[in-house]
Amino acid sequence: MELQHPHGSAKLEVQSNTSGFLPPRMTTTERDAIASPAPGLVIYNTTCNDINFFNGTYWVATTLGIPLGMSASGITDVQFTANWTAVPTATNYLLDVSTSPTFSSFVPGYNGLNVGNVVAYNVTGLACGTTYCYRLRAQNPCGLSNFSNVISVNTSACCLPNQVRTVGGPGVATTATNETPFSTFWHDTRRQYIITASELTAANICPGNLTAIYLNVSATGSPCMSGLTIKLKNTTSATLSAFEGGTTTVYSSATPVCPVVGWNTYGILPFYWDGTSNLLVEICCYQPFFSHFQSNRLV
Length: 299
What we know:
disordered C terminus
């Protein structure tokens, strides 16, 4: 082999076409006993047969894959679920969460949090209407991987007491006889509706007491309705094939109720929505004569 001078950027260059470079060999315990390792220090870890180098903060296991951060799920005003891909040789993962994309600070409790050998973790205790970032490192007995990509997530807008939120809509006006909660084509009527938890959450409705229901009426008939009652229920049902029982009466009127075009407000007894169940709404009324009302939005 022809001898050459070391590369200009190197203090030491080993040249060979018959032999390799052999770094110091030691166990994980011996590696961890090195006092104040210099950034860039390299050893061969005989415990797990892996090249390790010290990056100035921790030992990096070069054969340990890097997790891939995935989009967050289950986002609410105070929490989200961080997701990532699995690394085959990892035994656990460390999670960082910050309001800074450079992770100059951390959400308390989420600075290298060991979340175990999972690929999703529920991050709680957050502020509403705030942008957060998270990243991962895989870990096994050999060391840590480098950081994953950074995922950004926005918590939902702040939920405040006594706020009115619109769910769904605007809807489509109809003259059908069996569609709307105030349809009075028949002498009496009973309607049940499902509003899903995802619809409520998307409208920034927080778990807690519901205290009013608003119905947007597009056209009215006559006469007024008698015996109007509104009932609510937390339910696991996503669709209705039959009337459900177990509802709670939150509004009833001993006098006739005459809807007007536009938003009609009905103050109700406080009803606790748990934040995860779908909400069943039942509206009942009767009237002594035929009439016809149309409603195109329920909130």
